Amino acid sequence: MRGQIEKIGSGESVVSCRFGDGPPEHLGGEELLSHQVALARVFELLKERKFSVEAIGHRVVHGGEHMTESREINDEVLRAIEAAIPLAPLHNPANLKGYKICKGLYPDLPEVAVFDTAFHHTLPRQAFLYALPYDYYRKQGIRRYGFHGTSVRYVFYRYREINQVPREKANVIVCHLGNGCSITAIKDGKSVDTSMGFTPLEGLVMGTRCGDIDPSILLHLMSRDELAPHELSTFLNRWCGLFGLSGESNDMRTLLESMAAGDERCRMAVEVFCYRLRKYIGAYWAAVGRLDAVIFTGGIGENAALVRAQSVEGLEDLGLQIDAAKNEGHGEIDISAAASRVKVWVIPTNEELLIARDTFRILNGLPLP
């Protein structure tokens, strides 16, 4: 089964699900006024369809420095998730809430935490340290953590499986492009750099997040507009990125449609987005040295052919070329030109499947892929 529940807290919650290979089912108009009621409804649906639940896997955004792989949730893991709340105040409390609700509904079921930060625990110190006084890292944990690790892990696994490449021999760059965007450099099978940093705000231009910015701009805005820290944080996370540049939307599909209709601000937003990504591809190529492939994933990465093309434009002399006809395809596909020395892949992500597999493997004592 795969599904989701939308509009929790209203009298018109929408439950959509797919059982096996059957068609999607939409069960609308339900009154699911809390996450506890919504999760109870999920278990009820599973029971109705004769599915048994043996374990529960949770995506947890931040594991700090000590949660370096997926773990069965126990008191130690709970303390680590709680300790990382100051680093992810919007996400970790919600992740804990999901765990506690499930534990209340099914107290005897084992539960597993799959950490978004875990894949990036291999970053070398020259990549994760900021040029701040060292005590800020040592005492307060201010460093690059990286996010989207669950998605990157799945896509990297699929790339190796498709091409029959051992982990330790694979050098790739993964571009996860959605409303949140990040790029990760993987050398000899390990994450060696990633664009999101202490928070998911750093790095690429995103749907509503600004990405990389001169820190002095923040001081200027706080002074000129008399912004409190929480107001500035809201501004940088909610009103910038593609939405701020275009003045129209944070949705790349809308921007591409408006761009095709002649809207110059939308064209500008797309150009800035692709240029920032192209710069990062070049930088991360330098970080890994020999490069085998660039992989696109996420809603934009999987569906926006024009973004993929513009993001590698000008890298032909380095050995990176896209085949225009292949680039119009969909699904899991190699879009490299015949002459390209570096492969270019589109691989749809599947974080839910990775979480399910990690949960199964951990509870059965099997190594993680």
Task: Annotate the secondary structure layout.
Elements: E1 2-6, E2 13-18, E3 25-30, H1 35-48, E4 56-60, E5 71-72, H2 75-83, H3 92-105, E6 111-115, H4 125-128, H5 134-140, H6 149-163, E7 172-177, E8 181-187, E9 190-194, H7 215-225, H8 229-238, H9 241-246, H10 252-260, H11 264-288, E10 293-297, H12 298-303, H13 305-312, E11 333-334, E12 343-346, H14 351-363
Parallel strand pairs: 4-6, 7-10, 10-12
Antiparallel strand pairs: 1-2, 2-3, 5-6, 7-8, 8-9, 11-12
Helix pairs in contact: 1-3, 6-14, 10-11, 11-13
Explain this structure to me?
The protein is an alpha/beta fold and 369 residues long. Among the domains are: 1-52; 166-351, 2-Layer Sandwich (Nucleotidyltransferase, domain 5), CATH 3.30.420. The chain has helices spanning 35-48, 75-83, 92-105, 125-128, 134-140, 149-163, 215-225, 229-238, 241-246, 252-260, 264-288, 298-303, 305-312, 351-363; strands spanning 2-6, 13-18, 25-30, 56-60, 71-72, 111-115, 172-177, 181-187, 190-194, 293-297, 333-334, 343-346. The chain has a 6-stranded mixed beta sheet, with helices on both faces. A 3-stranded antiparallel beta sheet has the order 1-2-3, with no helix packed on it. The longest helix has 25 residues, at 264-288.
